[in-house]
Inverse folding.
């Protein structure tokens, strides 16, 4: 087995997940990691696959062409190095809530990057009347003191006019 990555995006409609995963199944692939979401009427997918050694990225892209055309998707397939990432060692969650305006995510992300904090997931939505919500899953480096980061993030939140919560992630066992 080797790893391939797929990204696909197109106008949301029922059947996209079924059509794409049918081709993956028929080609002998296994979904290792994936994320799928709808953004303003567009459905986006990113997947990491375990694929048979004989299945190249080019061959899988060809196998997906019919689905791509029929559903109006834009699909990219690439060789991927390594497999799924290990789980975060020190997972935390940041939640932001406030009036939407440019720069909110940038200011928080710049602070995190400056402290070598890895953003492992980010979801944002505009809800109601111009209210912006953001949830970031992050992984703290071993040397970083969580309390210090929390205080600095709260200062940034005050500067950009949003409410911020910072908490350790709860790890659920399935």
């Amino acid at each position: 087995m080797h790893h391939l990555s797929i990204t696909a995006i197109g106008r949301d409609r029922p059947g996209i997940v079924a059509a794409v995963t049918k081709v993956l199944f028929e080609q002998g692939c296994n979904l290792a990691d994936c994320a799928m979401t709808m953004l303003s009427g567009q459905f986006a997918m990113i997947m990491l696959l375990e694929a048979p050694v004989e299945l190249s990225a080019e061959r899988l892209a060809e196998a997906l062409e019919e689905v791509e055309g029929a559903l109006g998707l834009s699909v990219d397939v690439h060789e991927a190095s390594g497999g799924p990432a290990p789980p975060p060692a020190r997972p935390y969650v940041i939640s932001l809530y406030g009036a939407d305006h440019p720069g909110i995510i940038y200011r928080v992300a710049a602070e995190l990057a400056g402290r070598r904090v890895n953003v492992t997931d980010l979801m944002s939505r505009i809800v109601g009347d111009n209210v912006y919500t953001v949830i970031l899953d992050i992984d703290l480096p071993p040397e970083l003191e969580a309390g210090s980061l929390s205080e600095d993030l709260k200062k940034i939140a005050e500067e950009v006019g949003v409410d911020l919560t910072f908490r350790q992630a709860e790890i659920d066992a399935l």
